[in-house]
Amino acid sequence: MTTWTDRTGLSSRFVFGCLQLLRFGWLEMVSCLFPAFLFAGLAVSKYVDLPIARYDALLLYCLVLTLLFWLVRLETWREVAVIFGFHLVGLGLELFKVHVGSWQYPGDAVTKFAGVPLFAGFMYAAVGSYICQAWRRFELRVSGYRPIQTTVLAVLIYLNFFTHHWLPDLRIPIAIGLLVVLRRAWVFYTVGVRRYRMPLAVSFALIGFFLWIAENAGTFLDAWNYPDQVSVWRIVHPQKFGAWSLLVSMSFVLVASVKSLEGRLYHRGTSATVEISPQHDHANQADR
Protein backbone atom coordinates (compact mmCIF):
# COMPACT_ATOMS: atom_id res chain seq x y z
CA MET A 1 0.00 0.00 0.00
CA THR A 2 1.30 3.46 -0.85
CA THR A 3 1.25 5.90 2.03
CA TRP A 4 0.36 9.57 1.84
CA THR A 5 3.96 10.56 2.55
CA ASP A 6 5.21 8.51 -0.42
CA ARG A 7 3.29 10.81 -2.76
CA THR A 8 4.77 14.01 -1.38
CA GLY A 9 8.17 15.67 -1.48
CA LEU A 10 10.97 15.62 1.06
CA SER A 11 9.83 18.91 2.58
CA SER A 12 6.31 17.62 3.19
CA ARG A 13 7.65 14.41 4.71
CA PHE A 14 9.86 16.46 7.04
CA VAL A 15 6.92 18.60 8.15
CA PHE A 16 4.78 15.51 8.58
CA GLY A 17 7.51 13.87 10.66
CA CYS A 18 7.78 16.92 12.92
CA LEU A 19 4.00 16.97 13.40
CA GLN A 20 4.04 13.27 14.23
CA LEU A 21 6.78 13.85 16.80
CA LEU A 22 4.69 16.61 18.40
CA ARG A 23 1.62 14.35 18.42
CA PHE A 24 3.67 11.55 19.98
CA GLY A 25 5.00 13.90 22.66
CA TRP A 26 1.51 15.17 23.46
CA LEU A 27 0.10 11.65 23.80
CA GLU A 28 3.00 10.68 26.07
CA MET A 29 2.45 13.77 28.19
CA VAL A 30 -1.26 13.15 28.75
CA SER A 31 -0.52 9.47 29.41
CA CYS A 32 1.68 10.63 32.30
CA LEU A 33 -1.10 12.54 34.06
CA PHE A 34 -0.99 10.44 37.23
CA PRO A 35 2.83 10.56 37.56
CA ALA A 36 2.75 14.30 36.81
CA PHE A 37 0.18 14.94 39.56
CA LEU A 38 2.17 12.69 41.89
CA PHE A 39 5.37 14.69 41.37
CA ALA A 40 3.43 17.92 41.74
CA GLY A 41 2.28 16.62 45.13
CA LEU A 42 5.86 15.73 46.06
CA ALA A 43 7.05 19.22 45.14
CA VAL A 44 4.27 21.04 46.99
CA SER A 45 4.61 18.86 50.10
CA LYS A 46 8.36 19.52 50.22
CA TYR A 47 8.17 23.31 50.12
CA VAL A 48 4.78 24.04 51.73
CA ASP A 49 4.02 23.60 55.43
CA LEU A 50 1.18 21.11 55.84
CA PRO A 51 -1.16 20.62 58.83
CA ILE A 52 -0.38 16.89 58.86
CA ALA A 53 2.74 14.82 58.22
CA ARG A 54 3.99 14.91 54.63
CA TYR A 55 3.60 11.19 53.94
CA ASP A 56 0.10 11.14 55.45
CA ALA A 57 -0.91 14.03 53.20
CA LEU A 58 0.59 12.31 50.16
CA LEU A 59 -1.33 9.10 50.87
CA LEU A 60 -4.65 10.99 51.07
CA TYR A 61 -3.73 12.94 47.95
CA CYS A 62 -2.95 9.79 45.95
CA LEU A 63 -6.15 8.06 47.08
CA VAL A 64 -8.24 11.06 46.03
CA LEU A 65 -6.33 11.24 42.75
CA THR A 66 -7.04 7.57 42.01
CA LEU A 67 -10.74 8.02 42.81
CA LEU A 68 -10.88 11.12 40.60
CA PHE A 69 -9.29 9.28 37.66
CA TRP A 70 -11.95 6.59 37.99
CA LEU A 71 -14.85 9.03 38.36
CA VAL A 72 -13.90 10.99 35.22
CA ARG A 73 -13.33 7.67 33.41
CA LEU A 74 -9.64 8.19 32.77
CA GLU A 75 -9.26 4.67 34.15
CA THR A 76 -11.66 1.73 34.32
CA TRP A 77 -12.33 -0.24 37.49
CA ARG A 78 -10.21 -3.09 36.10
CA GLU A 79 -7.32 -0.71 35.53
CA VAL A 80 -7.71 0.73 39.03
CA ALA A 81 -7.59 -2.83 40.41
CA VAL A 82 -4.37 -3.50 38.46
CA ILE A 83 -2.89 -0.23 39.67
CA PHE A 84 -3.62 -1.15 43.29
CA GLY A 85 -2.18 -4.59 42.60
CA PHE A 86 1.06 -3.00 41.46
CA HIS A 87 0.84 -0.73 44.52
CA LEU A 88 0.92 -3.84 46.73
CA VAL A 89 3.75 -5.37 44.70
CA GLY A 90 5.77 -2.19 45.09
CA LEU A 91 4.95 -1.85 48.77
CA GLY A 92 6.19 -5.37 49.46
CA LEU A 93 9.47 -4.54 47.73
CA GLU A 94 9.75 -1.26 49.65
CA LEU A 95 9.26 -2.94 53.03
CA PHE A 96 12.06 -5.37 52.32
CA LYS A 97 14.48 -2.88 50.77
CA VAL A 98 14.10 -0.40 53.62
CA HIS A 99 14.57 -3.23 56.12
CA VAL A 100 17.91 -4.23 54.55
CA GLY A 101 19.04 -0.60 54.26
CA SER A 102 18.91 -0.13 50.49
CA TRP A 103 17.20 3.26 50.98
CA GLN A 104 15.21 5.16 53.59
CA TYR A 105 12.25 7.51 54.00
CA PRO A 106 13.02 10.62 56.06
CA GLY A 107 10.39 11.98 58.43
CA ASP A 108 7.65 10.47 60.55
CA ALA A 109 4.03 9.76 59.69
CA VAL A 110 1.01 7.99 61.14
CA THR A 111 0.75 5.90 57.96
CA LYS A 112 4.37 4.81 58.10
CA PHE A 113 4.87 1.09 58.73
CA ALA A 114 8.28 -0.53 59.32
CA GLY A 115 9.95 2.61 58.00
CA VAL A 116 7.87 2.71 54.80
CA PRO A 117 5.04 5.23 54.23
CA LEU A 118 2.00 3.57 52.67
CA PHE A 119 1.98 6.21 49.95
CA ALA A 120 5.21 4.70 48.56
CA GLY A 121 3.31 2.03 46.67
CA PHE A 122 1.68 4.74 44.55
CA MET A 123 5.03 5.49 42.96
CA TYR A 124 4.87 1.99 41.48
CA ALA A 125 1.15 2.37 40.79
CA ALA A 126 2.00 5.44 38.70
CA VAL A 127 3.87 3.15 36.30
CA GLY A 128 0.79 0.98 35.92
CA SER A 129 -1.36 4.09 35.37
CA TYR A 130 0.99 5.29 32.62
CA ILE A 131 0.82 1.95 30.80
CA CYS A 132 -2.99 1.89 31.05
CA GLN A 133 -3.26 5.44 29.74
CA ALA A 134 -0.75 4.84 26.94
CA TRP A 135 -2.53 1.63 25.94
CA ARG A 136 -5.73 3.58 25.36
CA ARG A 137 -4.32 6.74 23.79
CA PHE A 138 -1.86 5.00 21.45
CA GLU A 139 -4.24 2.08 20.78
CA LEU A 140 -1.48 -0.29 21.84
CA ARG A 141 -1.55 -3.90 20.73
CA VAL A 142 1.16 -6.57 20.84
CA SER A 143 2.11 -9.46 18.58
CA GLY A 144 4.33 -12.42 19.30
CA TYR A 145 3.70 -12.03 23.03
CA ARG A 146 4.22 -15.19 25.10
CA PRO A 147 2.24 -14.51 28.29
CA ILE A 148 3.17 -17.59 30.34
CA GLN A 149 6.92 -17.38 29.75
CA THR A 150 6.92 -13.60 30.21
CA THR A 151 4.94 -13.89 33.45
CA VAL A 152 7.32 -16.52 34.85
CA LEU A 153 10.35 -14.34 34.05
CA ALA A 154 8.67 -11.24 35.49
CA VAL A 155 8.05 -13.11 38.75
CA LEU A 156 11.68 -14.28 38.79
CA ILE A 157 12.82 -10.70 38.24
CA TYR A 158 10.72 -9.57 41.21
CA LEU A 159 11.97 -12.41 43.44
CA ASN A 160 15.58 -11.69 42.48
CA PHE A 161 15.26 -8.21 43.98
CA PHE A 162 14.88 -10.03 47.31
CA THR A 163 17.11 -13.07 46.94
CA HIS A 164 20.21 -11.35 45.54
CA HIS A 165 21.00 -10.12 49.05
CA TRP A 166 21.88 -13.73 50.03
CA LEU A 167 22.12 -15.67 46.76
CA PRO A 168 23.94 -14.88 43.50
CA ASP A 169 22.39 -12.00 41.58
CA LEU A 170 20.63 -13.54 38.57
CA ARG A 171 19.33 -10.36 36.95
CA ILE A 172 21.61 -10.68 33.91
CA PRO A 173 20.67 -14.32 33.12
CA ILE A 174 17.00 -13.49 33.69
CA ALA A 175 17.29 -10.38 31.49
CA ILE A 176 18.82 -12.51 28.73
CA GLY A 177 15.98 -14.98 29.13
CA LEU A 178 13.47 -12.13 28.85
CA LEU A 179 15.12 -10.90 25.66
CA VAL A 180 14.90 -14.41 24.20
CA VAL A 181 11.21 -14.75 25.11
CA LEU A 182 10.42 -11.29 23.72
CA ARG A 183 12.58 -11.58 20.60
CA ARG A 184 9.52 -11.79 18.34
CA ALA A 185 7.22 -9.57 20.42
CA TRP A 186 6.27 -6.24 18.88
CA VAL A 187 4.15 -3.42 20.28
CA PHE A 188 1.99 -1.58 17.74
CA TYR A 189 0.87 1.99 18.37
CA THR A 190 -0.98 4.75 16.55
CA VAL A 191 0.08 8.38 16.18
CA GLY A 192 -2.30 10.48 14.10
CA VAL A 193 -3.11 8.58 10.90
CA ARG A 194 -0.09 6.29 11.05
CA ARG A 195 0.47 2.93 12.69
CA TYR A 196 3.98 2.09 13.95
CA ARG A 197 5.68 -0.71 15.80
CA MET A 198 8.73 -1.28 17.97
CA PRO A 199 10.18 -4.32 19.76
CA LEU A 200 8.45 -4.81 23.09
CA ALA A 201 11.82 -5.22 24.82
CA VAL A 202 12.88 -1.79 23.52
CA SER A 203 9.75 -0.23 25.02
CA PHE A 204 10.70 -1.75 28.39
CA ALA A 205 14.16 -0.18 28.15
CA LEU A 206 12.77 3.24 27.19
CA ILE A 207 10.27 3.24 30.04
CA GLY A 208 13.02 2.11 32.42
CA PHE A 209 15.22 5.02 31.34
CA PHE A 210 12.53 7.60 32.04
CA LEU A 211 11.74 5.91 35.36
CA TRP A 212 15.40 6.33 36.28
CA ILE A 213 15.08 10.05 35.48
CA ALA A 214 11.90 10.18 37.59
CA GLU A 215 13.75 8.45 40.43
CA ASN A 216 16.36 11.18 40.35
CA ALA A 217 13.59 13.76 40.61
CA GLY A 218 11.95 11.86 43.47
CA THR A 219 15.13 11.65 45.53
CA PHE A 220 15.88 15.32 44.80
CA LEU A 221 12.46 16.14 46.32
CA ASP A 222 13.35 14.01 49.38
CA ALA A 223 10.58 11.49 48.82
CA TRP A 224 13.21 8.92 49.78
CA ASN A 225 17.01 8.78 50.01
CA TYR A 226 19.69 6.30 49.09
CA PRO A 227 22.50 5.97 51.66
CA ASP A 228 24.83 8.22 49.65
CA GLN A 229 22.14 10.92 49.39
CA VAL A 230 21.45 11.45 53.10
CA SER A 231 23.88 14.33 53.61
CA VAL A 232 23.92 15.70 50.05
CA TRP A 233 21.90 14.81 46.96
CA ARG A 234 23.70 12.82 44.28
CA ILE A 235 22.50 11.40 40.99
CA VAL A 236 21.01 7.91 41.31
CA HIS A 237 23.43 5.24 40.12
CA PRO A 238 22.84 4.41 36.42
CA GLN A 239 22.58 0.74 37.41
CA LYS A 240 19.05 1.54 38.61
CA PHE A 241 18.08 2.18 34.99
CA GLY A 242 18.52 -1.52 34.28
CA ALA A 243 16.61 -2.48 37.41
CA TRP A 244 13.65 -0.33 36.39
CA SER A 245 13.68 -1.72 32.85
CA LEU A 246 13.35 -5.21 34.32
CA LEU A 247 10.69 -4.23 36.83
CA VAL A 248 8.58 -2.73 34.02
CA SER A 249 7.99 -6.30 32.82
CA MET A 250 5.98 -6.99 35.99
CA SER A 251 3.85 -3.90 35.38
CA PHE A 252 3.29 -4.89 31.76
CA VAL A 253 2.24 -8.43 32.70
CA LEU A 254 -0.37 -7.07 35.14
CA VAL A 255 -1.81 -4.61 32.61
CA ALA A 256 -1.67 -7.17 29.78
CA SER A 257 -3.79 -9.55 31.84
CA VAL A 258 -6.57 -6.95 31.91
CA LYS A 259 -6.20 -6.04 28.25
CA SER A 260 -6.44 -9.72 27.34
CA LEU A 261 -9.80 -9.92 29.14
CA GLU A 262 -10.95 -6.79 27.31
CA GLY A 263 -9.87 -8.19 23.94
CA ARG A 264 -7.36 -5.38 23.47
CA LEU A 265 -4.08 -7.21 23.82
CA TYR A 266 -3.16 -8.82 20.50
CA HIS A 267 -2.59 -6.97 17.27
CA ARG A 268 -5.11 -7.41 14.49
CA GLY A 269 -5.33 -5.27 11.37
CA THR A 270 -2.97 -3.52 8.98
CA SER A 271 0.80 -3.65 9.02
CA ALA A 272 2.82 -0.96 10.73
CA THR A 273 3.84 2.34 9.11
CA VAL A 274 0.95 2.49 6.63
CA GLU A 275 -1.79 5.05 6.49
CA ILE A 276 -4.89 4.02 8.41
CA SER A 277 -8.02 4.33 6.30
CA PRO A 278 -11.34 5.38 7.83
CA GLN A 279 -12.73 1.94 6.96
CA HIS A 280 -9.94 0.25 8.91
CA ASP A 281 -10.49 2.58 11.84
CA HIS A 282 -14.17 1.65 11.95
CA ALA A 283 -13.23 -2.02 11.66
CA ASN A 284 -10.91 -1.65 14.65
CA GLN A 285 -13.70 -0.07 16.67
CA ALA A 286 -15.99 -2.94 15.80
CA ASP A 287 -13.28 -5.49 16.71
CA ARG A 288 -13.09 -4.03 20.21
Automatic annotation (TrEMBL):
Where are the membrane-spanning stretches? 21-40, 52-72, 79-96, 116-135, 147-166, 172-193, 200-221, 241-258
Q: Which InterPro entries match?
A: DUF817 (IPR008535)
Task: Point out the coiled-coil segments of this chain.
Answer: none
Q: Which Pfam families match?
A: DUF817 (PF05675)
State the UniProt keywords alphabetically. Answer: Membrane, Transmembrane, Transmembrane helix
Does the keyword DNA repair belong to this entry? no
At the top level of its lineage, which domain of life is listed? Bacteria
The name under which this protein is listed is DUF817 domain-containing protein
Species in which this protein is naturally found = Kribbella hippodromi
Q: What is the lineage of its organism?
A: Bacteria, Bacillati, Actinomycetota, Actinomycetes, Propionibacteriales
